[in-house]
Recover the amino acids of this structure.
């Protein structure tokens, strides 16, 4: 029987911001954005050797998984929900 990966805990404030941001994404894109960002944020935390998904993991997931066509919307939403994405700019390949 294949093993199921253990789910990681999410830092509570980062998770609240993430949920708020997901609710602001247009309905048509909301579910896919949720799925890909959760998967990538979890992967980012694991790669750091962490048992907790943190803000930097979520921000990194948005930047690596959201298509460039939605970049300006993503930046606006990151600002609205107070993700400090600029703090992680050196760690990510964030244009600008």
């Amino acid at each position: 029987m294949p093993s199921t990966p253990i789910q990681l805990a999410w830092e509570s404030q980062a998770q609240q911001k993430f949920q708020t941001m997901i609710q602001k994404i247009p309905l048509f894109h909301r579910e896919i954005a949720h799925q890909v960002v959760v998967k990538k944020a979890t992967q980012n935390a694991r790669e750091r050797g962490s048992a907790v998904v943190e803000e930097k993991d979520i921000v990194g997931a948005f930047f690596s998984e959201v298509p460039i066509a939605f970049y300006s919307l993503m930046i606006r939403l990151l600002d609205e929900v107070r993700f400090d994405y600029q703090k992680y700019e050196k760690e990510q390949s964030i244009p600008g």
Observations:
- The longest strand covers residues 9-10.
- The CA atoms of residues 21 and 77 lie 6 Å apart.
